Amino acid sequence: MDLQLAAIAAGSLSLLFLVTTLIYRQRASRLAQHYQSSEQLLQSELAFKSAALEALQVDVQQLTEKEREQSLSATALRTQLAVEQSANQEKIALLAQSEARLKEQFENLANRIFDSKAQQFDQQSQQRLAATFAPLKDQLGAFRQQVQSVYETEAKERHTLKAEILSLKQLNERMSEDALNLTKALKGDSKQQGNWGEVVLARVLEQSGLRQGHEYSTEVSQSTDDGKRYRPDVIVHLPEGKQIIIDSKVSLTAYEQYFNSDDDVERQAALTAHVQSLRNHIKGLGAKDYQALPGIHSLDYVLMFIPIEAAFLTALDQQPDLVKLALDNNIMLVSPTNLLVALRTVNNIWRYEYQNQNAKLIADKAAAMYDKLRLFVDELQKLGKGLEQAQLSYETSLKRLASGRGNLLSQAEGLRDLGVTAKKAIDPEWLQQKGVVVEKSSDNGATNGEMTRPVASERSANDE
User: Fold this and answer.
1) Which DSSP helix (H) or strand (E) runs through 154?
2) What is the distance between the alpha carbons of residues 282 and 293, in angstroms, rounded to a whole number?
3) Three-class SS of residue 219?
4) Which of 132, 148, 218, 415 could form a disulfide with 420, with the two C-beta atoms 3.0–4.6 Å apart?
5) Distance between CA 460 and CA 450 in Å, rounded?
6) Between the CA of residue 56 and those of 47, 61, 63, 184, 391, what are the distances in Å?
7) In terms of C-beta density within 10 A (0-12 exposed, 13-18 middle, 19 or more buried), how is residue 436 classed?
8) pTM of the prediction?
9) Contact 98/405 with Cβ under 8 angstroms?
10) Are 175 and 306 spatial neighbours (Cβ–Cβ below 8 Å)?
């Protein structure tokens, strides 16, 4: 049994060995066939590449020949280019010299023209400015003198104010004495007393510096809406249409009794009567309501003028509340002294008003003259711009005529060289001054039988 198994195993191994041997032989045969076919393929590919290499060598030889030919052609072209560049440089140098000469000549001409025009323009401008500023200078000088005069006058008035006050004091004392003397003559006559009070008021107005019919008016009749007519003694005018009304009230009878009586009882009774008379005058004047009259733009109060300073002061000393009573009735009590001070103040107000009006008039004239001057300066600026534009146009026209590529003078001279007949040639010296150069061909037209032509014309034709 074991032997059979061993035999079977040995047979199996032999069979396996044979099968394995057959498989390897088949694989070896296949590999040999593959290697043989690969070798044939490589040989055929090598033959193809050998043929391609030979073709490439032929192409390289042909390219080498062409390169040699192109190198020779490039050498010839470089030589020709060098010759042309040398000729062009000579032409450019000649053109640069001509342009430099023309530029220098044109600059000299332009500078001479500009200097001449500028000098003429400066002279005309100075004359016009002098004619324009002369009236302004005169008016400003007059205004300066007027202002200086006003300040000097005002300074003098301030320095003389003390003297005037002393003069007013003396005048008041003299007027008081005159009033006492006149009292005896006017005693008991109310009409004469009223007329005398108006005379004293007129003298105060005259001494104040105010002018009748201008800064004040007298005996102006006014009517109310109900038909009543009132006639204030004086209406003093103020700037801006305002007025001050002054009404004179004289009460001498009781004051004369008080002044001349030696009995204390009688003096006290006369003084009381004098104060009562003033109170009655205040109430009567307040009832008239002058400040409410049509056409009157008065202040809120009326000035009640008492022509006798001593009577005024005595009444206030006896009855101080007279001032309050007057103010309650829109009345202010005044005597010759303080009325004159008030009227002098009004006179100063009017003087300053007139000065302001004159200053405003001068300022308006100065503003109008400044506007005229501004318009003149604007015209000068326009004239300057016009001159600059004319200078630019002149330079452009001259360049087109005598400089630049294909300028007109060069082309015209070239036409003459081509055979154009003209009655008279352009002045050669002028052409030389302008730097116009007309070049002729080197063979002078003898080789090909061609006539000479200007270089500028050739360049212009080539550009076209």
Assistant:
1) helix 2-159
2) 18
3) coil
4) 415
5) 19
6) 14, 9, 10, 163, 74
7) buried
8) 0.41
9) no
10) no
Contact 342, 334 (CB under 8 A): yes
Q: How many residues does the chain have?
A: 464
What are 105-147's pLDDT values in tens digits? 777 777 777 777 777 777 777 777 677 667 767 777 777 787 7
Joined together, the tokens standing for residue 65 give 């020949």
What does the pLDDT read at residue 382? 85
In the 3-class helix/strand/coil scheme, how is 69-118 assigned residue by residue?
HHHHHHHHHHHHHHHHHHHHHHHHHHHHHHHHHHHHHHHHHHHHHHHHHH
Decide: residue 55, CB within 10 A, 0-12 exposed, 13-18 middle, 19+ buried. Answer: exposed
For residue 213, is it left (φ>0), alpha (ψ between -120 and 50) or beta? left
Q: Which two tokens stand for residue 69?
A: 């030919």
- Chain-centre distance for alpha carbon 256: 76
- SS3 category, 220: coil
Task: Answer for the pair 246, 234: CB distance below 8 angstroms, yes or no.
Answer: yes
Pair 234, 205: CB distance under 8 Å: yes
Q: If DSSP codes are grouped into helix, strand and coil, which group holds residue 223? A: strand
> Helix (H, G, I), strand (E, B), or coil: what is residue 406?
coil
CA–CA separation, 79 and 439 (whole Å): 25
- Answer for the pair 280, 300: CB distance below 8 angstroms, yes or no: no
**What per-residue confidence (pLDDT) applies to 184?**
56
Q: How far apart are CA 254 and CA 267, in angstroms?
A: 9
